[in-house]
Design brief:
Layout (H helix, E strand, L loop, with lengths): L2 H13 L3 H10 L1 H6 L1 H11 L9 H10 L1 H52 L2
């Protein structure tokens, strides 16, 4: 949570993209990010060969009430597992989306360039 804002900002600056447009898209896919938290944690458990932990929200609240440090430790472990899985998956997804999106965007750019050159005297 929050790391995508930094990553999107860095990517926008690195690739010369519109920062506001990049962040707008980031916020539109936020519900998808929330839906993928648990799958990424599970994938991180597999990648890191961690013991599978299943805590309901009620169990987690009770854990934090009983022992703050243990609750933070478990939450930190979940976060690390999710981030590790995301770091493995994100470059693959980026490459796939880039490969799929590049040809139609290049055609659109050529078409727009032709239209502009026909209008310009």
């Amino acid at each position: 949570m929050g790391t995508t804002t930094l990553v999107c900002g860095a990517a926008a600056l690195l690739f010369g993209l519109s920062l506001p447009a990049t962040q707008l898209i980031n916020y539109f896919v936020y519900p998808l990010q929330l839906a993928l938290i648990v799958p990424f944690i599970r994938a991180g458990e597999l990648l890191l060969h961690s013991k599978r932990t299943s805590l309901s929200l009620a169990q987690m609240i009770a854990l934090f009430q009983r022992n703050h440090l243990e609750g933070l430790h478990i939450l930190w472990r979940f976060a690390v597992q999710g981030v590790v899985a995301w770091l493995v998956f994100a470059p693959l997804l980026f490459a796939a989306v880039y490969g799929i999106a590049l040809p139609p965007i290049a055609r659109l750019a050529r078409s727009m360039a032709r239209a502009t050159s026909e209008v310009t005297p």
